């Protein structure tokens, strides 16, 4: 019989700490033999500029996350408030994804692309590090695809929030 992991005091404290630490929101997509896959992540961060690299984590190496980890390349879309509903649908399994009215297109290299996202980063995995039930992904950025700037979106206390337009000036 496998014991259910019991949340530790430190683990619960960490969750509480990050609940009030705003994070940017990204939708990560890839093309697989079974069709396009995607997920929402609030853990994307820049790591280095030479080589250009980012890091993010996924909570389990199955489903969409597993498909992205298994893909040769994937696209990390840094999104704005205009796409908060889309981010929500990619955060819940079984919801509608990649519908024509969501604005998806396909890059010449085959990955699903949201041209209206503020910026999209086409990447390939450099290294993965398993940490408990999560996987940390270090990825090389192969291409930066600028899109449409909008109102920045942050994830805070389990909800998406728009920031005022002029915060990046």
Describe this structure in words.
With 169 residues, this protein is of the alpha+beta class. It is built from three helices and twelve strands. The strands form three sheets. The protein has a seven-stranded antiparallel β-sheet. A three-stranded antiparallel β-sheet has the order 1-11-12, with no helix packed on it. Strand 11 (153-156) and strand 12 (159-162) form a beta hairpin. The longest helix has 11 residues, at 9-19. It is globular and about 45 Å long.
Furnish the topology, listing elements before pairings:
Blueprint lengths: L8 H11 L3 E2 L1 E7 L2 E7 L3 E5 L2 E7 L4 H8 L3 E5 L5 H8 L13 E2 L5 E2 L5 E13 L2 E13 L6 E4 L2 E4 L7
Antiparallel strand pairs: 1-11, 2-3, 2-6, 4-5, 5-10, 6-9, 7-8, 9-10, 11-12
Shape: globular
**Distance N terminus to C terminus?**
56 Å
Biggest beta sheet summary = 7 strands, antiparallel
Q: What's the total number of strands?
A: 12
Give helix and strand order, one letter per element, not per position.
HEEEEEHEHEEEEEE
Taking all Cα atoms into account, the compactness measure Rg is 16 Å
Please list the strands of the largest sheet in the order they lie side by side: 3-2-6-9-10-5-4
Proportion of β residues?
Answer: 35-45%
Query: Residue ranges: pLDDT <50 for 5 or more in a row?
Result: none
The number of helical runs is 3
Tell me, rounded to a whole number, the average pLDDT.
90
Secondary-structure-derived class? alpha+beta
- Tell me roughly what share of residues is in helical segments: 10-25%
């Amino acid at each position: 019989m496998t014991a259910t992991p019991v949340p530790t005091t430190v683990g619960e404290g960490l969750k509480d700490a990050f609940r009030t630490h705003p994070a940017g929101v990204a939708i990560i997509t890839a093309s697989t033999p079974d069709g396009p896959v995607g997920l929402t992540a609030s853990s994307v961060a820049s790591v280095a500029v030479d080589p250009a690299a980012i890091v993010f984590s996924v909570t389990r190496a199955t489903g969409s996350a597993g498909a992205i980890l298994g893909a040769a390349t994937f696209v990390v879309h840094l999104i704005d408030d205009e796409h908060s509903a889309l981010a929500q649908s990619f955060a819940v399994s079984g919801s509608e994804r990649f519908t024509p009215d969501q604005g998806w297109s396909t890059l010449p290299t085959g990955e699903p692309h949201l041209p209206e996202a503020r910026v999209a980063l086409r990447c390939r995995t450099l290294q993965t590090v398993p940490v408990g039930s999560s996987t940390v992904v270090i990825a090389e950025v192969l291409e930066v695809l600028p899109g449409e700037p909008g109102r920045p979106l942050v994830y805070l206390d389990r909800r998406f929030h728009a920031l005022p337009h002029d915060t990046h000036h």
